[in-house]
């Protein structure tokens, strides 16, 4: 190498740069919070520097700043390493510092035990649709947990396997109170109005068109920055959401891990009285404590809440025929049976369709999986159902469903050209601006009393 080349190389080395901090996603106009990115990562976050020890210990004899160290486990101690979920929190006061727990006297419409022996349940062998929940009146202030209504479900949290689908409608923010679900993870999809979620590990702003997952056992509160809000909740028992296997798709496809966002540590110093609402097997309990539950100064682990923009899904297409709906899965939850999921959360985003000499709308179908569909925005057009944004539809296992005769007649005789379908909407089965929850484990969803009354009023 010539002296000139060596000199140039030395200058390049002298002018190189290295990162000094980890990457976080910056605040935006509709979302003022900062996020770590990734799915299943072992995150570390400190609101105050030097909160977390970096010397091979989770539990030093005396934590920095005299904080209390507390672990939250989302899986058993002896589960496989790749399945292990836990988080260590460094907090101002321990979670056990609270008053006695008592049953909560509140007339709610939340269910969790979906058995044929439960008189509140009914297995209905037909398709059902529900409109959006009505916004509570100003005379009935209703916050997030008070506005939850169970529609369908299968299984039982005491058996550690099952799923429940709820709708919610709220018109006020939660005040000095937090909610914690001991039954399972929540996947929340707002349809109208943002959700400003404060969790123990930090804050998330969830916009319509996004989803958020809140793990079981993690306390949170919900504020409504845009006023009244409504949307959907999918709850799973005995499992946790994960990314689906990609198989022949390869290393890139569907939902990319870097598009998932987890909060950074954020803490309050409030010492007023707080109420914590606890859901256990569908029943509500509460306790008071003289301090905020949101006092975690730093944390590290992988059992965290996270959000995802549904429109980021990489939509797949084919040159002929149709792909199965599993090709549009964002998140899945495995059951106890290998190869069978408790549920798959699917979204059908805008995409080019160029399949030639093939039927393009959703085909006529009967399947062993039960399917629940919701709409975020747009116009429904995928079957004989009537469904509007904020509404919900259920096709139980083996129940026939498909397009109307008019839709068949139109699509059977049109000239096929490449087309962008679902543009400007969140789509299911190419043309339906909606999402889908498919339960592979259940033979049928059962409908609760509230859902049966609601559907009879439509």
Automatic annotation (TrEMBL):
Keyword list, A-Z: Dioxygenase, Iron, Metal-binding, Oxidoreductase
Entry binding sites for homogentisate: 380, 401
Needed cofactors: Fe cation
Coiled coil: none
Residue span, Homogentisate 1,2-dioxygenase N-terminal domain: 34-309
SUPFAM superfamilies tied to this protein: RmlC-like cupins
Enzyme Commission no: 1.13.11.5
InterPro entries: HgmA_C, HgmA_N, Homogentis_dOase, RmlC-like_jellyroll, RmlC_Cupin_sf
Lipoprotein recorded as keyword: no
GO-annotated biological processes: L-phenylalanine catabolic process; tyrosine metabolic process
Annotated residues for binding of Fe cation: 365, 371, 401
Cellular component GO terms held in the UniProt record: cytoplasm
Enzyme class: oxidoreductase
A GO term, aspect molecular function: metal ion binding
Domain Homogentisate 1,2-dioxygenase C-terminal, residue spans: 319-423
Pathway: Amino-acid degradation; L-phenylalanine degradation; acetoacetate and fumarate from L-phenylalanine: step 4/6
CDD domains: cupin_HGO_N
Top-level taxon in the UniProt lineage: Eukaryota
PANTHER family tied to this protein: HOMOGENTISATE 1,2-DIOXYGENASE
Similarity comment text for this entry: Belongs to the homogentisate dioxygenase family.
Protein name: homogentisate 1,2-dioxygenase
UniProt organism field: Knufia peltigerae
């Amino acid at each position: 190498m010539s002296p000139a080349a060596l000199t140039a190389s030395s200058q390049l080395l002298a002018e190189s740069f290295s990162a000094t901090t980890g990457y976080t996603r910056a605040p935006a106009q509709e979302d003022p919070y900062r996020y770590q990115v990734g799915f299943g990562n072992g995150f570390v976050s400190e609101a105050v520097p030097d909160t977390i020890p970096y010397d091979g210990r989770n539990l030093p004899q005396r934590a920095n700043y005299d904080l209390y160290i507390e672990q939250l486990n989302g899986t058993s101690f002896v589960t496989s390493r790749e399945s292990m979920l836990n988080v260590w929190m460094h907090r101002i006061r321990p979670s056990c510092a609270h008053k006695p727990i008592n049953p909560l006297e509140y007339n709610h419409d939340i269910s969790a035990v979906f058995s044929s022996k439960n008189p509140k349940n009914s297995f209905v062998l037909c398709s059902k649709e529900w409109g959006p929940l009505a916004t509570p009146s100003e005379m009935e202030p209703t916050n997030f947990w008070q506005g939850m209504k169970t529609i369908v479900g299968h299984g039982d949290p005491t058996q550690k396997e099952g799923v429940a689908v709820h709708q919610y409608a709220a018109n006020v923010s939660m005040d000095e109170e937090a909610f914690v679900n001991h039954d399972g993870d929540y996947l929340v999809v707002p349809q109208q109005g943002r959700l400003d979620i404060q969790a123990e590990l930090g804050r998330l702003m969830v916009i319509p068109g996004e989803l958020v997952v809140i793990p079981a056992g993690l306390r949170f509160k919900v504020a409504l920055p845009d006023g009244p809000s409504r949307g959907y909740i999918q709850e799973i028992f005995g499992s946790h959401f994960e990314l689906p296997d990609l198989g022949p798709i390869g290393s890139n496809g569907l939902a990319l891990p870097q598009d998932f966002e987890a909060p950074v540590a954020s803490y309050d110093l409030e010492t007023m009285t707080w109420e914590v609402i606890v859901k256990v097997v569908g029943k509500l309990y509460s306790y008071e404590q003289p301090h905020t539950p949101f006092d975690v100064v730093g944390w590290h682990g992988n059992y965290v809440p996270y959000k995802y923009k549904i429109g980021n899904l990489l939509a797949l297409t084919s040159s002929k025929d149709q792909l199965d709906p599993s090709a549009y899965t964002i998140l899945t939850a495995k059951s106890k049976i290998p190869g069978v999921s408790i549920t798959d959360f699917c979204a059908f985003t805008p995409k080019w369709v160029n399949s030639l000499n093939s039927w393009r709308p959703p085909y006529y179908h009967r399947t062993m999986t039960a399917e629940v569909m919701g709409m975020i925005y747009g116009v429904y057009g995928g079957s004989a159902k009537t469904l509007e944004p904020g509404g919900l539809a259920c096709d139980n296992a083996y129940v026939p469903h498909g397009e109307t005769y008019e839709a068949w007649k139109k699509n059977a005789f049109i000239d096929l050209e490449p087309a962008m379908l679902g543009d400007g909407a969140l789509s299911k089965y190419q043309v339906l601006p909606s999402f889908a929850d498919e339960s592979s484990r259940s033979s049928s969803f059962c409908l609760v009393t509230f859902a049966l009354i609601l559907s009879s009023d439509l």
